[in-house]
């Protein structure tokens, strides 16, 4: 009986790092409570860090190390592809909090395959990279019907992919891709300036247009993914844009969509999240109150009045914090809001075409090139026995 209990506890609380999915409904505060960590760890944080704690996404993978008794030694919780929250016990057994950049490697390579089954399955077979297969389908979804593809057609993709702890990590980043159907070539290219896909004539393939969601006084804080603060000697991030405006100023939906969250969200206070097409979501934080009559599930049109500017949650004055997410990843709203045309023009078109010419050559040369080697990581590779300190 005793042996059994001992074995059980070793099994349960072996001193090793676990990789877990953040449960739905769990917040930074409920997590602290679960491990009997003083909530002051949170309450003593600065405003920006508290906002980041509201960015934890259910389902994202985090790494946790417990001692034999089941108490927390340290944990790393991602809040974007770039940043993570680190809670750890210091030498005096006091819990500390830090925001840290996520350490990863990035590969850049070219995949060239002939269709045997379907683009999705063949990309998966060649690379084991689901994020890449998903992104290729998404990127061509507005310009190509994959049903017309036949055995022997060509797919060439120039892409970047992050790798963390021996696994693919985050979204696949397509630089350019060529799909050849019955000898006809179809291209897409990512324009780094606005993160949208265009064809070889600089015509946009992802038509999403956003409006500024209020009339504001000034932009009081811009988007930063990770920035080393030389005086504070720490990393800071701000995953949205802050628009200063008087309390009570109306807030409008930035684009057509459906409300998927309406309520309090940690340091963001009264928050509405709207889901749009193309894997996009917008988040409107710190509202004084919501417009009545709207609820989770309500469809809203671009420009629909949804709430009022306020200072709820953690906020030093009335403002709207606007977040924009693409497939769950925070992107800079100002990069997207500025764009109102679906074609590049003038200087930006010239620059883009010069850039794509080079990529087209690379893609064309890679058709039928069997010598290309791409990374193929084991699927479901186990992540136990990871030394957490090695990823800090
Ligand atoms: Zn903000």
CATH level 3 topology of the largest domain? Nuclear Transport Factor 2, Chain: A
**Percentage of residues in strands:** 35-45%
Q: Report how far the terminal alpha carbons are from each other.
A: 40 Å
User: Helix proportion of residues, in percent?
Assistant: 10-25%
Please count the helical segments.
8
User: What coarse outline follows from CA principal-axis ratios?
Assistant: globular
Structural category is: alpha+beta
Bound molecules: zinc ion
Query: What is the average of the pLDDT values?
Result: 89
Low-pLDDT residue spans: 1-13
**What is the gyration radius calculated from CA atoms?**
23 Å
**Largest pleated sheet:** 8 strands, antiparallel
- Overall domain count: 3
Query: What oligomerization state is this entry in?
Result: single chain
Q: Give me the count of strands.
A: 23
CATH class of the largest domain: Alpha Beta
- Which second-level CATH architecture of the largest domain applies? Roll
Characterise the protein shown here.
Strand 9 and strand 10 form a beta hairpin. The radius of gyration is 23 Å and the shape is globular. It contains 8 helices and 23 strands. It folds into 3 domains: 102 residues, Nuclear Transport Factor 2, Chain: A, CATH 3.10.450; 128 residues, Roll (Nuclear Transport Factor 2, Chain: A), CATH 3.10.450.350; 120 residues, Glucose Permease (Domain IIA) (Distorted Sandwich). The strands form 5 sheets. Strands 11, 14, 16, 17, 18, 20, 22 and 23 form an 8-stranded antiparallel beta sheet that branches. A 5-stranded antiparallel beta sheet has the order 1-2-3-4-5, covered by helices on one side. With 392 residues, the protein is an alpha+beta fold. The longest helix is centred in the last third of the chain and has 21 residues. Helix 5 runs antiparallel to helix 6. The site of zinc ion has 6 residues, from loops.
